[in-house]
Amino acid sequence: MMRPRLPLHLNASRLVSLCLVLLLVMLPVAVGCLPGPPATRRGGTVEIPPTPPGSEPAPGTTPGQPGTSAPVYAASLRVHFLNVGQGDAILIQSSPGGTALIDGGPRAAGPGVVTYLKAQGVGRIDLLIATHPHADHIGGLVNVLGAFPVARIIDSGMPHTSDTFSDFLSAIEKQVLAGGCVYETPESQVAQLAANVTVTVLGPERLASSANDSSVVCRLDFGSTSFLFTGDAEEPAERALILAPKPLDADVLKVGHHGSSTSTSAPFLAAVTPIHAVVSVGTNTFGHPSSITLNRLTAAGATVHRTDVAGHIIFESDGESLQIAVVQGVFALLIAPAGNWLAVAAAGTAGSPATAKTAWGYQWP
Ligand SMILES: [Zn+2]
């Protein structure tokens, strides 16, 4: 239920106004408190401060010094689809550059998400997108917001009456009042995690009648590689994106609504033409993922990856090619630099995630 001590409830624009004022007042304090300089907002675009010469930051750390104008260009990008059970949580790390998180999984997954992020070297989140207010997407964000400073938060603007949503707003309020955090609604937002890594919000252009169809949909572009994240958007939202029209073509599709038959319509799939499709799903009573959707994806030529089968699914891009690693299952599909997707190394088998650890130096919580 709503908490009366939260005057900022349900009104993102008011929060934005408040936080802009707070930013002006508290900027010197924020600079002194955060592990790095806060991102600055310029006309809807967050620019991550540049990296000083000779200091390559670990993924997820804040690069750079304030006051310099040299742009940061990422050399690599990692996109982690976390196995949070029934829900979504996606970590994006530009190296060098910034860190973004899309959703945080259900409440029970929150501590594990925080542990995972810390294991990847995340000390601060430059961009946090909460696609919509359902608990399987924002529940874990309560822990995340309590554990990391967040520079910029975008959500759908759709309210909810759940205690989870109330706790989510309380956690945002703390970040905004602490300074260095802006809370925004999604319309046409763009964020640069590096000069060559762009997160573009494609929708919704307006709230729909359902929370699912109000999901924040965004794309991620790095060089010639691209990802499309759809939250729980269903067919009406997909149709709006097609009619707009929005740039939907992407290499990797985060399949909408956990593979529900109400998402991933044939026209939408024809617009996206994914090479890889990731279904973030766990034990559920909704029949997710639908065999209809899985068959549609396969027929469209996409390779389907499921978090309930594979565990965490991690893509790494150099701007031209993609590698994919799966933990808790068979892994290692290497995409050749020429852009051809080739199975180069079946180095891991089920139950041997250590190979993936060795290959990329990850520490799995
Ligand atoms: Zn969901």
Number of helices: 10
Number of domains: 1
Q: Give every kind of bound small molecule, once each.
A: zinc ion
Strand content: 15-25%
- What is the global morphology? globular
> What CATH architecture do you see?
4-Layer Sandwich
The tally of beta strands, per DSSP, is: 18
Query: What is the top-level CATH class?
Result: Alpha Beta
Strand order of the largest sheet: 1-2-9-10-11-12-13-14-15
Fraction of residues in H or I helices? 25-40%
Mean pLDDT: 78
Structural class from helices and strands?
A: alpha/beta
Distance between the termini: 33 Å
Find the CATH superfamily.
Ribonuclease Z/Hydroxyacylglutathione hydrolase-like
Helix-strand sequence: HEEEEEHEHHEHEEEEEHEHEHEHEEEH
Main sheet properties: 9 strands, mixed
CA radius of gyration is 19 Å
Low-confidence stretches: 1-67, 329-365
CATH third-level topology: Metallo-beta-lactamase, Chain A
Can you describe this structure in just a few lines?
With 365 residues, the protein is α/β, with parallel strands linked by helices. It has 10 helices and 18 strands.
